[in-house]
Amino acid sequence: MATRALPWEAGAPTGAGLAPMAGVTDAATRLLCFEQGAAWAVSEMLSAKGWVFSGRKNRNAVELLTRFPGEGATGLQLFGREPEYIARAARELEGEGFAFIDLNFGCPAPKIVGNGEGSALMREPELLGKIVRAAVRATHLPVTAKIRAGWDAQSVNAAEIARICEGEGARAVAVHARTRDQFYAGQADWRVIAAVVRAVDIPVFGNGDVRGGADARRMLEETGCARVMVGRAAQGNPWVFAEINAALRGEAWTPPTLEARLETALRHLDMALALYGPNKGVLEMRKHVAWYISGVPGAARLRERVNALGDAQSVRALLEEYARRGV
Question: What residues sit in the active site (predicted)?
Answer without folding.
Answer: 107
